[in-house]
Amino acid sequence: MIVIYGIKEHLNPVKAQLSDVIHECMQSVLGMPEDKRAHRFIPMDADNFYYPDGRSPAYTAIEINMMQGRTEETQKSLIKALFRKIESEVGISPVDIEVTIKEQPAHCWGFRGMTGDEARDLKYSVNV
């Protein structure tokens, strides 16, 4: 699951495009299937979204929650692909993008009535 935060006046107009770009990166780098898009957008009022100095109101925070198993190199490739594609296709500068990958063991995930370590029918590999 991916959660995207930003100031609503800047995030709302690009939500669909940003979702497409993020999912494209997840597919190309992690091998996620087309039907595994799980994005949650949190458009915020400017007075509830503080961001670091040197950033613009387009500052966007992307939290990627996933099961453990991807290598450090794969995770870095995903982050760099996101910076590149978001800048070229959505127009948000890398200085205004923050990406955090949060990994949890498979047993900490619950979906379709089971835990992640019990799932045997995933259409993608976690160990990439």
TrEMBL record:
It comes from the Bacteria. InterPro entries: Tauto_MSAD (IPR037479), Tautomerase/MIF_sf (IPR014347). This is Tautomerase family protein. It comes from Halomonas llamarensis.
